[in-house]
Design brief:
By secondary structure, this protein is mainly α. The protein has one domain. Helices cover 81% and strands 0% of the residues. The longest helix has 37 residues. The chain is globular, with a radius of gyration of 18 Å.
Length: 214
Amino acid sequence: MDEIVALAIGIAVSPFPILPAVLLLFTDRPRAAAFAFLGTWFFSIALIVTIFAVLSGAISTDEQSSRWLDWVRIVAGIGLIALAIGKWVTRPPTVQVPSWMRTLQTATPRSAFVLAIVLSVANPKVLLLAAAGGIDIGSAEWLLQQQIVVIGVFALVASISVAAPIVAYTVAGPRVLGPLSVVKDWLLRNNVAVMSVVFLTLGVLLIYNGVSGV
């Protein structure tokens, strides 16, 4: 269970979903766009985890299959470490705002919906973490109802960082835009370092658990 929560936290602390969640609050329709992004993000994560949980659960639980899942963890861990190293080595010398972030100034609820899908389902970093979580859930000896609850908890934890600025804006209104702007600038400056540390830590965790099983 600890590994599952750690993977969800790894998604939550990723700057990629946090930055658009903040930037959407500066649009003409902040609440509608932000909640469209949050809802789609939550259900996209839950869907990815569910798919891999089903695939993992469909595999028999004999010793050979269990060993295969341990090797999947090892490969996933190596992949995360490779992503961490790649992100750090290829980091730009100066802060660069991705072109898709600049387009968020005129984002609508519909474009926020599409962006949430792209940043979750089509993002290899998020996909790898959610897939690893799904594999752990599917291979655990839990009842179906328990697996559904854990999948919901995983998606909830993975969405906390996205929900936090949106809820703050809903409660306090435009007064939070100043502090959120500071958060946005910090994440833009340090997103590579944050992602590298997160991926490296989770990669080592997955490899350790996989090797322990093998």
